[in-house]
Amino acid sequence: MELPGRSCGSRAEVLSRLLRLGYPVPDFRTVPFAAIRRIGRGARFDAPQLLSEFDPSDLIIVRSSPERPEWGGPKPIANIGMCSERVQLLAKIHGEEEAAAVHAEFVQTFAIDVFGLDAGFFDELACSGISQTERLQCSLEHFCKTTGERFPESPAEQLEQACRFMARSWEESSARLLRTAMGAPDDAGLGLIVQRMASGLLGPNDGSGRATAIDRLSGDRVLSGSYSFREPGGGVCSTGLSELAEISPGVCARIEVLLEQLRVEFEDDREVEFSLEGGNLWLIGTRPAPRSPRAAIRSAVELTDDGLIDESDALLGIAADTLAQIIHPQVDPDCSNTVLAKGIGASPGAVSGAIVFSSAAAEQCRAKGESCILVRVETGPEDIRGMHTANGVLTGRGGLTSHAAVMARGLGVPCVAGASDLLFDAIRQRLISNAGRVLREGDTITVDGARGVVLDGVADLIQPNLDSYFDRFLKWADKHRSMDVRANADTLDEVRVAAEFKADGIGLCRTEHMFFEEERLTVMQEMIFAESPGMRRQVLDELLPMQRNDFMALLTEMSDRPVCIRLFDPPLHEFLPRDRDEIANLAIALNLTEHDIASRADELKEFNPMLGMRGVRLGIVLPEIYEMQARAIFEATVEVGRRGIRAIPEIMIPLVSANREVELVKLTVEKVAASVRAEVGIEFEYRFGLMVETPRAALRAGDLAINSEFLSFGTNDLTQLTYGISRDDSNRFMNDYVERKVFPEDPFCSLDLEGVGELLVIAAGRGRQSNPSITLAICGEHGGDSKTIEFCRKAGFNYVSCSPYRVPIARLATAQSAIRARQGTGDKI
Amino acid sequence: MELPGRSCGSRAEVLSRLLRLGYPVPDFRTVPFAAIRRIGRGARFDAPQLLSEFDPSDLIIVRSSPERPEWGGPKPIANIGMCSERVQLLAKIHGEEEAAAVHAEFVQTFAIDVFGLDAGFFDELACSGISQTERLQCSLEHFCKTTGERFPESPAEQLEQACRFMARSWEESSARLLRTAMGAPDDAGLGLIVQRMASGLLGPNDGSGRATAIDRLSGDRVLSGSYSFREPGGGVCSTGLSELAEISPGVCARIEVLLEQLRVEFEDDREVEFSLEGGNLWLIGTRPAPRSPRAAIRSAVELTDDGLIDESDALLGIAADTLAQIIHPQVDPDCSNTVLAKGIGASPGAVSGAIVFSSAAAEQCRAKGESCILVRVETGPEDIRGMHTANGVLTGRGGLTSHAAVMARGLGVPCVAGASDLLFDAIRQRLISNAGRVLREGDTITVDGARGVVLDGVADLIQPNLDSYFDRFLKWADKHRSMDVRANADTLDEVRVAAEFKADGIGLCRTEHMFFEEERLTVMQEMIFAESPGMRRQVLDELLPMQRNDFMALLTEMSDRPVCIRLFDPPLHEFLPRDRDEIANLAIALNLTEHDIASRADELKEFNPMLGMRGVRLGIVLPEIYEMQARAIFEATVEVGRRGIRAIPEIMIPLVSANREVELVKLTVEKVAASVRAEVGIEFEYRFGLMVETPRAALRAGDLAINSEFLSFGTNDLTQLTYGISRDDSNRFMNDYVERKVFPEDPFCSLDLEGVGELLVIAAGRGRQSNPSITLAICGEHGGDSKTIEFCRKAGFNYVSCSPYRVPIARLATAQSAIRARQGTGDKI
């Protein structure tokens, strides 16, 4: 028997391996890639020769054997050899009518699958109540009429047609597209397996099935699978394996033994395709047991415990991104809710709730204990209260890095962004779907933030389950990784999530969110209208105790783990009211005219706020804000120190572009530190560093590093500036761009290694050269992305920081990257 | 006599040179830097020893001799030695009263200048009508009472006090600041000249003066200057040189001969300080003749014609930026109009006119033949009509690279931008100055775009005069320069100015301005509402003939010189109306509802338009616009070709960040070119290239250059993105930043060599490596800046492109850079 090489495909390889291991595999021959390619182009194919190697009484099945299993291939064509002789043999055992039924079914399937005839005629025929003999006759006539040819009667003809059809199918453009998407090259090969059908139609209960030893969802060790067989006179019947045990006692036990053997031999949990023929068990194929991410982790842990694989194998075997499915609830794939709109899956997880159009409505819902979804055209800092309150977020505009998306991921709230199919009718407070469905406040929808889909009503959800396997698995990851994983967390809630997911610290705590709470907002507004540094200082003094409390809570929660606090960043106009009522209220509160408020707001208005008066520029022009924040940080450090926590806060300066900015702010911060030390008479430590967000900061990192203990790359803004693309506006063309491969990927999702990446490498090199002890990190949204993590490890970064809910993913990805490096899979960039 | 070396300062050097050349120089001694430094710190000074080297009857003057003339130094102290003996001698000749007057004047001057006494007392005393003897007595008593010392009576005491005072003055912080601004180092030295006063008080008409052989403003060869002498009994009298000729016949002829000799010896037109003593002419000093830029050019040309200097010297001798003063009218420095506000001098030149607040009002003014100034808080594309019409522009917001500033420079219209002192009361259509002056439409103001000042009413202006010397001088520059100078010109008017100033081509023709004309704007708006590519194409077809005419006019005007046309760049929302009336009109025109218009405008709204859907992104998502433009360019090329003009247009793609963008647009353009060639059956050439404006494009220049024939750096946007600063919003902190040296200079004025410059160098290197024949250029606002031009030459750029009105400046600066390079002053970066 010809032992197939690589050029016959993956199924051929597996079958050969099974044969070598001594398992019962039905007799088969392979047709290699090269032959299939020739056949596809019309070359002759010696079917009689091939058939001659089988017993004439065998029925034959032809199966795809693609170069890699995930590249697909046409579906199998079975029962080849079903000719008059064969049918007569069947008739002797099962009777004429039953034999005719089997024959008619073969003609129907072959006509539809191989010749592409419409299924409708055959379906009607089967249900028409005529006898099976008549049905067969009609089928053959219909075939003849439709194709202009007689139905291939001889087994050789059937085999040739089947193989030729499969060879051509492989070259069709839709098949090509599908496998290209899975990474197949243009010349990906298809082999064919021509095999004796070991599920004869002869014996009772003969049939075929699939089985695994683990539960697909939970990973529990339990035999599961399916079995199909032909019930006399009743067509094909499918059952579970427990029913099979009743029909064929002992078979399941044999399958269980088989699966256990395969698990050891293949060092993985496997699924088997098997058939039963007169009580004999045949193995037709095997592949890794399909499993959910949760089951995959349990399986990997158990394989390791059983000594079949080591921890590294276990860690490398799980795609890091799949952990998101374990952490968040998922929409049940079988649910039948109407899809209202598609958008961008901006924050994973799924949730159902009542529509609310404002933060206030969200709070009312929450007060009543009801779940709600905050629905906005786009969100801004004024919606933060609502986002904290709501159970899900849906926006009409904005991409993966829009305000809503970033906030939602941070909060772990499911979010669909940029659902531009939905018409947001702000005036009448309603949403209209493309299909015309009108939704009002209080109507229930389900947001699927993983797939970016909005469903009507309450959908069935699969709840997450973080079991002990998950914990053990991630502890292994922690053992293997060489980089720290911190979290981007602004609020105490987020910091708690980060701690729960065992983040090594906080890599980015944005402080501006702390100024939007109602009480504080008024103080901020008062500050904006203060006319002198002295007055500003006086107003900011009111915020000091609140900020100190914020920082005390964060430092206490993280205890000895580092907390990197970014000083105030956003433009001041974000704090001014926009609508008439709010302006009027503020005017009263500040004892000013509405005109004063409006004209100050007008003064502060910016053409491009992203590129305006924010970050360190505010810190230099209005140093009182940073003074207050630095004092709050230091006083909090002293205070938690009194309670036994030795915190070392990190102060991070945003949007730097020149070294003198760093020098000035550093001086301000040092002065405040000296004052606080003198006042309380207690020493404390802190670290001072920069967020590298402008291309210029990256290029000048050599200078900047002299005054910094750490450089943390804010790759969101850095990507915006390197490309000249506003992430909030990018949704207008990004989809089009990615579809047309103008950009291989959205650079806000996947770090642009060629452009932004080069800036990171330049900056890291220059920074380290002038300050060898500098800490290098990334704290943009990319920090949780596996490809970016690999890049950061290669560039010698000290840590990555990402959304709290991505911390487990990053822990795994950093471990995988370290393992691959040890194994020698790539090193220096 | 001690011959002073370098360490005695510039005046000492000049005097020594004059002595060596044999001119009559009054006897002098020098005090070197080191001695002055010691005296300033309180060291002893042997004044009697120094005085002993002069004749006891001499009066002495002490003059500053700073290391470089432009570094200043305290003013001279004269008449040292005016003691009783000396006064008695005077009295014998001129009478007691006259002698007392001279003595009193000396006491007064010495007390004020050396001892810092208040001038008020002495002025009153001089006018009080008392006798000169009484005046002297009172002065001496006042001195004694105020200082607690007696007035220094002996010549040695006076000399010591004077020298000590001058040494200390040199170290004062205000003096230090002034000379540091002129580039002086911290240890800049001051020497002193102690010299016999050769304008004795003895003879009639004895006195001192200054003279040059050229007119300060025009450069005409005519003796001019001033002379001061003491009229008996009437104090000091100042006259012109013609009066001197009447008093002392022959003196002026001698001075003219002297100036001619000095011109030859110093190879420059000189000013002399001279004195007359009993009819004898003494030379006291000489310096380059002060002259306006226009006079400087005439002088340089004539010196070259006379063989005294060569063309290189002539070219290096004129600061390139000063040409701006020749090209544009200037406000007469002596005018007395009230300053209403200060802003940023955003476009040079000065003009008076009536205030208009809208484009419509500007056009009405123009129709009446009246001059007007367009006054806006800030300008946008909708104001272009008004800016074309108005004679000057004044804005309340925006910096040197704001829309108003860039447009105004392009148009050569004087502009003051960011005049934030003025309150713009839009509702009541008026302006209020800081001082409370209220200005309404129609009131006349003067805008001084060179100094950034707004004056009340009509100010006296000095008109420009581009004479034949200017032309010859710039022709020399053209001979010496190694880089081309092109102009950024969008309209036919601008292109004509560029041609007049002999630009080597158009380096940047922005096409979007062509879409804002009324007729075209409606078509653009219709295009924005078109629902399919086909409909868009149909609408754009209406614009095609207009664009073709635009390009034909430009290509015809520039004839065989290259014209680089940048395809459409701005975001579409700039074309949609903002106010209610315009929205209503558009709705009627397009047969849509106002709601449709408003919601489309809302859809197109962007958070950061600078980083949004514009440039090549539009070209890819809505390729119909670029298709139409490319066709218009090619058809125009064919058409002008039929008229005998062999134009080779250049097509430039804006805002590129990835190579695939270039490939796609290049394909589009090539397809259009092929169509046009097939349709008309005529061959034509064009060049295809990119505007490098994003940091990513700079980093990826190696890829991009493969598909490009030229890379032109748009340093405005590149600076915005490298720093993360919107030029339109930067005025909020830029002044503060520059004043506090956070940035050494505004990077929008002066190219940031360390950051943006590095990107240019990286891009130039990578671009040239992958495409050695690539053309490299700069077309940002920096293109006309001397420092940037020097940078571009070093980086091997092929041309710079700047505002039409800066072309002469750039022609000179490129020549200077080339000459300095040949002379070996710096080479590789």
**Main pleated sheet of chain A:** 8 strands, mixed
Enumerate the strands of the largest sheet of chain A in spatial order, edge to edge or round the barrel.
Answer: 11-21-20-13-14-15-16-12
Radius of gyration of chain A: 33 Å
Low-confidence stretches of chain A: 1-5
Helix content of chain A: 40-55%
Secondary structure tally, helices of chain A: 33
Distance between the termini of chain A: 48 Å
Name some characteristics of this structure.
disordered N terminus; homodimer; alpha/beta; eight-stranded parallel beta barrel; 829 residues
Break the fold down into its secondary structure elements and pairings.
The structure is a homodimer of 829-residue chains.
Chain A lengths: L9 H11 L7 E4 L1 H8 L6 H5 L8 E7 L10 E4 L3 H11 L1 H18 L5 H9 L4 H16 L7 H17 L1 H9 L8 E7 L10 E8 L6 E11 L3 E6 H7 L3 H16 L3 E8 L2 E9 L4 H13 L5 H6 L6 H5 L2 E2 L7 E4 L1 E4 L2 E7 L2 H9 L4 E5 L7 H6 L2 E4 L7 H9 L3 E3 L5 E3 L4 E3 L5 E3 L3 E5 L4 E4 L4 E2 L5 H13 L3 E5 L3 H9 L5 E5 L7 H11 L4 H26 L4 E4 L13 H11 L3 H11 L11 H6 L2 H19 L6 E5 L5 H22 L6 E6 L2 H5 L1 H6 L3 E4 L1 H9 L10 H6 L16 H15 L4 E4 L7 H9 L4 E4 L4 H16 L7
Parallel strand pairs in A: 13-14, 14-15, 15-16, 23-24, 23-30, 24-25, 25-26, 26-27, 27-28, 28-29, 29-30
Antiparallel strand pairs in A: 1-4, 2-3, 2-4, 5-6, 5-8, 6-7, 8-9, 10-22, 11-21, 12-16, 13-20, 17-18, 18-19, 20-21
Helix pairs in contact in A: 2-8, 4-5, 5-7, 12-18, 18-33, 19-21, 20-21, 21-25, 22-23, 25-26, 32-33
